[in-house]
Amino acid sequence: MGRRPAIKLALKRLGYTARLISQGFAAMPRCILLLIALFAAPAFAQPFAPDAAPPSPEMPPAQLLAQFHHDEINLLALRGDAHSLLAAALMAQTDADDPARPKALQTPALLARAQKADDADALVWWVSAALDCRGKAKTCPREETLAQLEKSGADNAANWLWALGSAQNPSNAATARAALTSAAQAARFDDYFGTLTSVLYQATGILPVEENILRASNQPGVSPAGFRLTYAAGIAIAVPLPYLMTLAKTCQSSQSDAGLAQDCIAIMQKMADSGSLSTRNIGVSQLMRLVPSGAAHDTAVAQARTLAWRMQHIGELGVRLANDSRVTGVYTQALGGSGREIDAVDAVLRLQGIALEPPADWQPPAPNAASEP
C-alpha cells in the first residue's frame, strides 16, 4: 500500500471524532498535525547518524537528514534567546545516545541554557516539566519546575495540573488537591501545543530546505514549508502530558465529592474552550459524562459536533497542508499569531470556503465506521 492510501486508511480508522480510552479520556489525534506527522513518518523514523563529512549527493537519505538537523541545532545553539535554545533542545532529543555529539549540543545542556535565558517564559518551563516526566520518573516534575510554571503562568489551568503527579504519593494528596482547585479557578487552559509547534516551525527556518533534503524526506510533493511543519509537528506531538491520565483518575471519583466534581467540571469547561483540538475533545467528552443532562450537557454535545465537523474537513486537506505552500502559510501564520491550533484550522477552512459550523442535519460519522479498502 502506498503512502497516500495508507494515510487515508489511517485517517478513516482514527475517524477524527470523539473517542474515549482508559478513564474516559479521548484518543482523538491532534488532527491535522498528526496527519502530516504520519505523512512524514519516513523522515522521523530514521535514526540520526553521527556527524560525518559535509553532505554530498551520494550521502544516504537518513544520514543527509541527520546532518541537516544537526546543522540546524548547531546554529540555533549559537543564539541566546530562550525559544531558539528550547527548539534546539527538543530537536536534539534523538542524540541522547550519540557519543559523537558534544554534551553542549545535547538536550540537557540546551534546555538548561533556555531556562537561564532572560526571556525564559512559561513555554520553556512547560517543556521542562514534560521532559522531567519522560521515561520512568516516578514523581515529577521537579519542585523548581513546578514553582517556575506557577510563577510564569498562574492564570493557566494546565500549568497547575502538573502538580497532580505528586498525587502518586499519598503524603502529597493535599497539595495535589489544592493544585486542582487552583486549576479550576484559573482563567484559561493552554497546553502550549500550538505555541510550541509554531516555535519549532520558526526555528526550522534557520536553514533553507533544499531539493535534496525534500527528496531525502520521502514525502512526495512536500513543499519546503510543509517539510518544516511536518518536522515541527512530529516533535510537538511527542511531548508527554502524563497529568492527563492522573486528571482522568481523579475526576472519575468525583461522583461522591461535590467539591471535586465542581472543580473537574470547571477544568473541563476551560479545556473545551482551549486552542488545542485534542484538549477540546477531552473537555467536551468529559463534560458530557460529568454533566449527564441539562444546558451544560447540551452545550458540550453541540461543541463536540462542531469539533467533529471541523476535524473531518481539515483531515481531508492534510496532503495539501504539506504540499501547498499557500495553505501551509495560512496555517502557520494563524498559528504564530495566536498560538491556538483551532485558529489555524479555522483559517485553512475559511481559505477553502468551508463553513465552520455543520449543517443542521449533519451528524459525525460513527467512531467505528467501516473503512473502505
What topology does this entry show?
Layout lengths: L2 H12 L16 H9 L1 H5 L15 H16 L5 H10 L15 H10 L5 H11 L10 H10 L4 H5 L11 H13 L7 H11 L7 H6 L7 H14 L5 H10 L5 H15 L4 H14 L4 H22 L1 H6 L1 H14 L2 H11 L22
Structure in words:
With 373 residues, the chain is an all-alpha fold. It has one domain (3-351). 60% of the residues lie in helices and 0% in strands. It has 20 helices and no strands. It has helices at residues 3-14, 31-39, 41-45, 61-76, 82-91, 107-116, 122-132, 143-152, 157-161, 173-185, 193-203, 211-216, 224-237, 243-252, 258-272, 277-290, 295-316, 318-323, 325-338, 341-351. Helix 17 (295-316) crosses helix 20 (341-351). The longest helix is centred in the last third of the chain and has 22 residues, at 295-316. The protein is globular. Mean pLDDT is 84; it is low at 1-31 and 39-53.
Give a short summary of the structure.
The chain is 60% helix and 0% strand. It is an all-alpha fold and 373 residues long.
Count structural domains.
1
Radius of gyration equals 21 Å
Roughly how many Å apart are the termini?
10 Å
Strands, count: 0
Separate helix tally: 20
Measured by DSSP, the beta-strand proportion falls in under 5%
Helix amount, in percent? 55-70%
Quick one: overall form?
A: globular
Give the H and E element order. HHHHHHHHHHHHHHHHHHHH
Query: Taking all residues together, what is the mean pLDDT?
Result: 84
Structural category is mainly alpha
Q: Please outline the major beta sheet.
A: none
Low-confidence stretches: 1-31, 39-53
Defining traits:
373 residues, mainly alpha, disordered N terminus
